[in-house]
């Protein structure tokens, strides 16, 4: 499962031990790691962190605004997870443009959303 030919270069500053631990994980474990890391960020209410949308995400609603995109989604991590789906969460997604022309999406967790409010 971990025989992908092109291993991505980890971000600068990521501890080597963590990188090697992550490389040893299965896809399911990686998804859970992302969710747990995201939940830790939510708790700490830190600065926006770059996250790529996951294929298993259940996008409920996308609303374009002038400076950001509002996204409401649920997150599935794995079959057999008692807590799936996680959410519903509201995010503000902004695009940060780099000097080389590339863009990075920053998903900022705003709050839990009750779908019954809709
Ligand atoms: Zn789950």
Automatic annotation (TrEMBL):
Keywords: Plasmid. This is Uncharacterized protein. It comes from Haloterrigena salifodinae. The lineage of its organism: Archaea, Methanobacteriati, Methanobacteriota, Stenosarchaea group, Halobacteria.
């Amino acid at each position: 499962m971990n025989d992908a030919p092109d291993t991505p270069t980890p971000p600068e500053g990521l501890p080597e031990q963590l990188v090697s631990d992550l490389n040893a994980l299965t896809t399911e474990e990686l998804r859970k790691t992302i969710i747990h890391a995201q939940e830790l960020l939510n708790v700490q209410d830190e600065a926006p962190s770059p996250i790529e949308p996951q294929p298993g995400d259940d996008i409920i609603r996308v609303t374009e605004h002038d400076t950001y995109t509002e996204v409401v989604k649920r997150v599935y991590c794995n079959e057999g997870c008692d807590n799936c789906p996680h959410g519903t969460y509201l995010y503000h997604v902004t695009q940060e443009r780099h000097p080389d022309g590339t863009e990075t999406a920053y998903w900022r967790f705003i709050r839990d959303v009750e779908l019954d409010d809709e």
